[in-house]
Each structure stands twice: as structure tokens, then as C-alpha cells.
Amino acid sequence: MKTFNKLSIIGGAFLASLTCSLVAQTPAPESSPASADKCDKCGPNAPRDPLAKLNLTDDQKNQVQTVMQKTREDVKTIKENAALTPEQKGQQIQAARQSSDEQMKTILTPEQYQKFEEMKAAWKNKGEGKDRPHNPFEKLNLTEEQKAQIHPIMQKTGEEIQAVKADTALTKEQKEQQIQTIKESTDEQLKTILTSEQYQKLEQMKAEHKGKHHENGDKPDAPANN
Hints:
Blueprint: H1 6-25, H2 58-80, H3 86-107, H4 110-126, H5 144-166, H6 172-193, H7 196-215
Helix pairs in contact: 1-2, 2-3, 3-5, 5-6
């Protein structure tokens, strides 16, 4: 179940765009290479500056660039740490981004920070366009704490299902049984995180998704949760 991973993907993409635009705006020291060399996505084909509307001062640009680059490095380090479980990675990445957000509050004015939050929301919505899969959790209005709890669960579920599918020692029936058990376990964990209303809405979305598969003649990989 990779759909929920887009929360991290969108956050990382937004972070990368902010850093890239700031590098392009900040004059390079005379003793160092051109700033554009620091970001492989900067240059003529770079995305439109997402911070232009904030009217940052040069001092703010330097501070924001430092915060964003450190956050990207921290997130990358966490993701590459093989000693951490998916749940631990999700929690630490969430903590790193919350820390970054708190630092942004101290750098930006209240008006700038409000616009910054609006930009993040707009970037998130852009990431849910035609080129990206629909995020089934978006309509649940999850809190940041719920997102941090659910992300590692969904990531682990996806990894376990892929492992079962790739196990050539299992028969088709055994794979379906094991995948069903994994999904039921995930479902039980979600019940403890979501409110009654959120869980009911999730069940409705799963039923609608299942109905669309049948209408299109698609065959699910395994029996859906009841």
C-alpha cells in the first residue's frame, strides 16, 4: 500500500523546491563555485520560485536555506539508516519536519508564515493531480499525530505484502491467505488510531474502491477486507 507514502514524497518535493529556489536567489561567495552548482535541479529548467510571494529579505533567505538544507540532510540520513524500523523512521522524519516548521516560525513574520502554510497546502493539492494516485487518507482529515502513526504501518504493510507475493515457495491460495491476514492486522491497528467517524469513512472508501475494480473487470491481488 504505497498511496500513503505520498505524504512524505510531497513533503520532500516541496522541501527540495524551496531549497533549490533559495540557492538560486542567494549570491554565491566569490571564493566558491556558482550557487547553481549546488543544486542539480536549479538553472534554466528550475521550477518557479515557491517563495517569491513571501518577499523574503536576504537575511531570511540565508536562514531559510540553512534550515531547509539541514532538514533534507536529516531526512535522508534517517531513510538510509538500516538500523531503524519503518515505524521509527516515520516518527523521526515527522519530528525532523516539525522541528523545521518551528524554526520557520521564528524566521518568518506571522503574515509570511501564514502564506508559507498556504503554499504547502497548495503544493500538496498539486501533488494530488492527474499524474499522481489518489490518496485515500486525504478525506479523513488526519491530525499530524495520526499521520505519523499511520505512515509506518502502511509502509510495513506494503513491504510485507510484496514479500509474500515474491515468495515462490507459496501457492496462490497461501499467498492470498497470508495477504488477507496482513490486511486484517493493519485494519485492527487503524481502528486504534482513527476515530469512529474516520474509520467508517475509510471503510466506505474501501468499498467504493472495490466496486470500481469490479466495474472495470479488474481482479484484486487478494480478497479485500470486510
